[in-house]
């Protein structure tokens, strides 16, 4: 009897301890849930608030006719766009509205920026664009409010933690998504044409029309053997439907696997990549490696007039940038990157899509202003060490002929680009000095 | 019994002290943090100097491997992987905080290399090298895309975007090949062909993703627009 009593007592203690433990972890996890949910809620509320403000500012820009007022509002708009984008992207809801708002902000933010840079009165077309943007923002704001309502009024509170579901937007599986099916159609087509920044669709669909002739898989294989090495055995892997349609081949060299992409149009080598690892012995000098890459371009690919502009060593492999040189102009637009192993001089990688897409014969590469005139546009404090003509790519896929000035200011090295036609300062790059990367200029 | 405890305590104190001493120094030796020891072990193992596990713990095996490496490469044989030894291994820059990227564009920094490498490690370990680069390229394509956040960290940590982030695998130390793949992706290699999504057709449950136009298949992953 006494023994039973002890057992019962022990059992009771175990149950109590277990209960306490459960209770403790329950409250704890509830606490975690609350604090995480609060962060999400805060971000969502800030996003709606911020978007509301953007909507109001857009209305003001739409109504105003004063250059200074509009510019002031545009700067405000640009700043709040950045903030709302941050907030909206940290919300764990996969939802068409969220996605639309995010895309809307990214695209219009870039547009405001370009308007600010113009620094003049809005013209007719720009006014119309602002009007359209404002109309779209009205629709999106209404959608956001609906979503907010849904979240606020959902039974038992909205479950922020488990609702994340699928990340991919437009899915039918997310339960609240169905309510907003029509939203995309309701949004007035906000400017896609007016804006051709890095996000523009035309950028992603970059194509080259120089090469017309399509090659077959067999021809591709033959060509690759000719370019790389006639003895390697190439195995067809797959076709790629990227903006450079290509065939992908695989081959082995020593114990390493290589893949090579060759374009269907024109049969040009687009890329090589491999899991090659160099050992620690650097038997090849950088200068030799640069020559190996250049010779490969020249002899194997028939690409002439390439000049190394920059290299970077990592893990005993050097990655060298080669730019096309026409007359005395360095065309950064036509870039090929080659990786050469410093252990054995093997070419272990190549990236030629930029060259493939951009390279063409350019006729008008004559500057309108003199080097001296351009030099006068550069900040006086910059001690210029080198200068040359260069064709630079811009974010909008256009090419600009510039004078490139390399110079020192204090400890920092800068590259300054002065437009060789207009004399405008197009870009300034700060060279980040690292132990193993060198600008060969 | 008491003695044993005492010895143990003393021993652990000593180890602790050692840790503190070497954690602050700029060579890799006993007590160095795993993130420094691992790459050294990895290199040594790859080149056949080291036969133990790549576990991030500096042991006698690691020490003798370093000595062997130093002997063979004409360095001071002290078993400590200092500046010159690490430089010879090509990994000295791993220990420096400064950016190793000299690209003067606004694109990427050292932090980005690490974050992308970690994400590749979590998402595409076991995939062919090209597939690893492709995953890195998808991250960078998303940064450029208007439908996604505008920074690498924003993209990687976007809610539900990557399984490896949701289940915490992103926090593992990336292998050397993941770091190389991240570097290649940053340097412009894009085997995905401008993809912004990818999935594993064997495991993907999302119907919508399967309707995306496919660009290319690499290893187990399908990359799409």
Give a short synopsis of this structure.
With 441 residues, chain A is α+β, with helices and mostly antiparallel strands. Chain A contains ten helices and 13 strands. In chain A, strands 1, 2, 3, 4, 5, 6, 7, 8, 9, 10, 11, 12 and 13 form a 13-stranded mixed sheet that branches.
Any descriptors?
heterodimer; A: 441 residues; alpha+beta; 13-stranded mixed β-sheet; 10 helices; B: mainly alpha; Muramoyl-pentapeptide Carboxypeptidase, domain 1; Arc Repressor Mutant, subunit A; three-stranded antiparallel β-sheet; 9 helices; 3 strands; 47% helix; elongated
The CATH class designation of the largest domain in chain B is Mainly Alpha
- N-to-C CA distance of chain A: 96 Å
- Largest interface, counted by CB within 8 Å of the partner chain's CB: A-B, 68 and 61 residues
CATH topology label of the largest domain in chain B: Arc Repressor Mutant, subunit A
Total strand segments of chain A: 13
Q: Spans of chain B with pLDDT under 50 lasting ≥5 residues?
A: 13-24, 97-108
What percent of residues of chain B are in strands?
A: 5-15%
What does the oligomeric state look like here?
Answer: heterodimer
Q: Return the CATH architecture of the largest domain in chain B.
A: Orthogonal Bundle
Summing up helix and strand content along with how strands pair, one would put the structural category of chain A as alpha+beta
- The secondary structure category of chain B is mainly alpha
Helix content of chain B: 40-55%
Mean pLDDT of chain B: 77
Shape of chain B: elongated
Give me the Rg of chain A, rounded.
30 Å
Question: How would you characterize the largest beta sheet of chain A?
Answer: 13 strands, mixed
Give the overall average pLDDT of chain A. Answer: 82
Principal-axis shape of chain A equals: extended
What does this structure look like?
The complex is a heterodimer of chains A (441) and B (225). Chain A is α+β, with helices and mostly antiparallel strands. Chain A has three domains: 2-204, no CATH class; 217-358, no CATH class; 371-439, Nuclear Transport Factor 2, Chain: A (Roll), CATH 3.10.450. Chain A is 42% helix and 24% strand. Chain A contains ten helices and 13 strands. Chain A has helices at 2-63, 67-89, 96-118, 124-153, 183-186, 201-204, 217-227, 286-300, 353-358, 371-377; strands at 235-240, 246-253, 256-263, 269-274, 306-314, 317-326, 329-341, 347-351, 383-393, 399-409, 412-419, 425-431, 437-439. In chain A, strands 1, 2, 3, 4, 5, 6, 7, 8, 9, 10, 11, 12 and 13 form a 13-stranded mixed β-sheet that branches. In chain A, helix 1 runs antiparallel to helix 2, helix 2 (67-89) runs antiparallel to helix 3 and helix 3 packs antiparallel against helix 4. Chain A is extended and about 95 Å long. Chain B is mainly α and 225 residues long. Chain B has helices at 2-23, 34-46, 60-72, 83-89, 110-124, 129-144, 152-156, 163-166, 176-186; strands at residues 197-199, 214-218, 221-224. Chain B has a three-stranded antiparallel β-sheet, covered by helices on one side. Chain B is elongated and about 60 Å long. At the A-B interface, helix 2, helix 3, strand 1, strand 3 and strand 4 of A face helix 6, helix 9 and strand 2 of B.
């Amino acid at each position: 009897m006494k023994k039973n009593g002890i057992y019962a007592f022990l059992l009771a203690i175990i149950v109590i301890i277990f209960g306490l433990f459960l209770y403790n972890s329950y409250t704890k996890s509830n606490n975690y849930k609350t604090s995480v949910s609060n962060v999400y809620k805060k971000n969502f509320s800030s996003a709606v608030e911020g978007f509301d403000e953007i909507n109001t500012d857009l209305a003001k820009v739409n109504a105003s006719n004063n250059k200074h007022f509009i510019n002031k509002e545009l700067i405000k708009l640009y700043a709040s766009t950045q903030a709302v984008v941050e907030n909206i992207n940290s919300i764990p809801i996969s939802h068409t509205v969220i996605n639309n708002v995010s895309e809307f902000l990214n695209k219009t933010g870039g547009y405001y920026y370009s308007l600010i840079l113009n620094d003049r009165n809005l013209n007719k077309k720009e006014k119309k664009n602002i009007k359209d943007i404002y109309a779209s923002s009205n629709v999106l704001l209404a959608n956001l409010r609906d979503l907010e309502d849904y979240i606020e009024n959902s039974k038992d509170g909205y479950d922020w933690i488990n609702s994340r579901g699928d990340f991919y937007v437009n899915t039918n599986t997310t339960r609240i998504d169905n309510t907003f099916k029509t939203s995309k159609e309701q949004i007035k087509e906000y400017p896609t044409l007016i804006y051709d920044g890095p996000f523009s669709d035309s950028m992603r669909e970059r194509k080259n029309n120089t090469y017309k002739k399509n090659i077959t898989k067999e021809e591709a294989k033959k060509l690759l053997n000719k370019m790389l090495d006639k003895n390697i055995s190439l195995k067809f892997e797959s076709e790629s439907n990227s903006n450079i349609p290509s065939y992908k081949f695989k081959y082995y060299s020593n114990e390493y696997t290589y893949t090579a992409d060759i374009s269907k149009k024109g049969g040009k080598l687009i890329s090589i990549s491999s899991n090659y690892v160099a050992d620690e012995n650097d038997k090849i000098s950088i200068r030799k490696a640069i020559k190996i890459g250049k010779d490969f371009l020249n002899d194997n690919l028939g690409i002439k007039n390439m000049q190394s502009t920059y290299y970077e060593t990592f893990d005993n492999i050097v990655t060298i940038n080669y730019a096309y040189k026409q007359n005395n102009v360095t065309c950064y637009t036509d870039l090929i990157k080659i990786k050469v192993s410093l252990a054995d001089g093997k070419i272990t990688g190549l990236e030629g899509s930029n060259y493939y897409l951009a390279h063409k014969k350019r006729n008008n590469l004559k500057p309108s202003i003199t080097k001296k005139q351009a030099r006068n546009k550069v900040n006086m404090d910059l001690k210029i060490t080198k200068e040359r003509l260069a064709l630079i790519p811009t974010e909008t896929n256009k090419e600009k002929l510039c004078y490139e000035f390399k110079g020192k200011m204090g400890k920092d090295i800068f590259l300054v680009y002065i437009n060789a036609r207009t004399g405008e300062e197009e870009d300034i790059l700060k060279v980040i000095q690292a132990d193993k990367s060198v600008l060969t200029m | 019994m008491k003695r044993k405890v005492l010895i143990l305590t003393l021993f652990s104190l000593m180890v602790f002290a050692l840790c503190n001493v070497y954690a602050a120094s700029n060579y890799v030796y006993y007590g160095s943090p795993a993130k420094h020891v691992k790459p050294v072990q990895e290199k040594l193992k790859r080149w056949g100097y080291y036969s133990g596990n790549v576990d991030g713990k500096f042991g006698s095996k690691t020490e003798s491997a370093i000595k062997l490496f130093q002997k063979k490469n004409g360095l001071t044989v002290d078993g400590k992987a200092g500046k010159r030894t690490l430089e010879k291994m090509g990994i000295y820059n791993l220990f420096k905080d400064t950016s190793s990227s000299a690209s003067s564009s606004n694109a990427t920094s050292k932090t980005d290399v690490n974050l992308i490498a970690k994400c590749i490690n979590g998402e595409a370990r076991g995939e062919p090298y090209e597939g690893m680069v492709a995953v890195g390229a998808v991250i960078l394509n998303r940064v450029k895309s208007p439908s996604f956040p505008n920074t690498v960290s924003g993209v990687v940590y976007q809610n539900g975007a990557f399984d490896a982030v949701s289940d915490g695998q992103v926090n593992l130390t990336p292998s050397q090949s993941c770091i190389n793949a991240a570097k290649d992706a940053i340097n412009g290699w894009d085997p995905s062909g401008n993809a912004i999504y990818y999935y594993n057709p064997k495991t993907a449950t999302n119907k919508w993703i399967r309707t995306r136009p496919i660009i290319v298949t690499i290893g187990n992953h399908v990359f799409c627009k």
